[in-house]
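=== RUN LOG ===
request id: a7f3
mode: sequence -> structure
chains: 1
length: 696
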Amino acid sequence: MSNKDDEIKALKQLLKKAEEKAARAEEKLEKERDRRRKAEEFIVVMTALIPVMKALSDQCQEILQQLPPDLPQADVKRLLNVMQETQADFINLSKYHTIVRLFAKGSEKIGRPKKADDFEAARNALDKAVRNLKKRQQELQVLMQASSEAAKAAYAEQSDNEVLKAAADIAETPEPEVREFERLPSPGRQLLEAKQKGDFDSDEPLEIPGECPHCGHSNLITGAEIKSTLRHFETSINKLSQLIQLKSQHCYCQTCGQAFCVCGRDIPVKPGREMGQSVVVAAAELNAVGIPLNKVMQLLFMQEDQLGKDTLGRNLHDWLVDTGKPLMDIVLAELNTQHTMVMDETVLPVLQSKGQGVCEAPENEKRRQKDYIGVQCSAPGVDRQCVRYIYLGSRDNESIFAALQNARPSVLVTDGYVSYASYCKGLERPTPQCCLVHLRRLILDALVIPKMNKELFGDEVDKAVEKAKNHFTKGTSAFLLCSVLSAFSKIYGNEASLIRKDGESREEFLARVKKSRQSYAKPLMKNIDTILCELAKKETQTNSAGVFESADKTKQIGATVAYYMNRRDSFHVFLEDPEVPTDSNAVERAIRPLTVLRKATDFKQSRDRTESLCILMSLYETAKANNIRDIPAWLLACGRAYYLYRANRTLTRRMQEGLKAGLNKDELLDARITSFTDDAGDGFDWTPYLPWNFRQ
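=== RESULT ===
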């Protein structure tokens, strides 16, 4: 009896344990269901948010392109700050933990987050900033119109005054006729093709060729199918990233002795890595438009992926150094031989240079608080457009000279920074062309336009021209500078009309540009020079070194005139050389994406990662300049071709050396490639993948 009771008791305990185990399994299953439900909800929200993010980015870019290039620097900075804050608000809205809070417990309805209200408020602030800029532009137009009439009236009374004659000539110069022509498509313009979408849970079947791609014979032997896991990115937010079973197979031609590798739809960043090139290219695209890599990790991967904090960054860095740098070296070689180069620099803090962060600063180097990125690009209108970002460190003469060490341009277009002027001195150095927009911006910042308009158009609007005429007669600096602004406006109107016609060769176009500049812009620049030289007599003074300085340090007009006088000859180079642009706007546009990224990231940790960021930005901006529509497709094509070329050379050497040593063919073919030989990339033909040659 006792034994039977013990058995029953033991059975009850086993039953209880089984029930507890089943309950735990059910609880675990419910948690998994809840996790999947949240993941599905996350995908739904991200699918809705991504178009909004793209629309915001497009709106910002459209606004920036439509703004006049000569707006005051302070106003442009305010607008950029509003745009950057707007994008930062959206990035915060896109955080995973924020989106999870959108869903009430037990409810399938999506709630409206408070951040969305903040986002709309930021967009309203952006619209307000644009309206204020347009208002200032209208005020400037009214002031310039009144000044033009006043200049002619003043010269009619004092016909022997050279300055008034210059101002009157500017006013009487007719506005240029702007004619619209279709631009010829550049060699890099891409054809749009429909994107094919596939839904695969595993890699596609490998297609083994029937003949050797090197010699054309069919005497092939193939190794066993090699399977490995690879993190792969589908170009769809619905799939994010996933683990796939990567298939690759090695083949050897017994006729010509060449080996080659056949891979599936994706390939790793480097041999042995579990990160596919599709993932790093997707991350590069997001990083290039201003999203920090830690935010990219949140967008591309779920928390359950359990990737290390630096996994994505390390793989992206290695891919850029391994594949992106050889491609950019060829682009740079093209840029260095072009007739005109445009260059500027911008700030990007690097913690390693400050002695902060996780990377130690070099012991023999002085700590610095500011690091600079240099940006070089081709002149507008050149068929082969190139953009290069380079880590300068500081912007002293040594750093600027090093960045231009291998460059051989005939003309260097800059903002007139003193290091560029120092570089251009001496034999076999480029001729400097200073940016006219930069000078015009300084003039706009020196004028108090609302105050001048209030003085002219106060209670007696009909006397505005008479009041302005009195200022011209007295030689008031601010009103004479209005004539300079009017001249700049007409010069840029003329430049806008110089568009390459259908069927017109580049030589014919450049000849037409030079003729137009000589007949229209040259007299205007001569009048500008007359006015500014006259203002220099009362607004500036020269020091012991013969350098112009403002006579009154409290007046910005004196500093602006001194800026012109110290670079006087450099503002007129474009008149004699039609290949030279009037400004450095091309490089300013290339700097903007880096400015947005700097606002979002604040700093970079190390110099190595800063240099790889320069490669990334160089690739993307060069592709954009050559009108490549699908940049990720271009980068993936380059990466795949370069990887397989090195894999084939490495495999061929292994087979040849192994067969000489008497090793088994099958074992040699079945072995994985763990690394490339040092010279595996030698001889690779980059020509089809250069941005101006690439065809999708």
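=== NOTES ===
DSSP finds 21 helices and eleven strands in the chain.
The radius of gyration is 32 Å.
=== END ===
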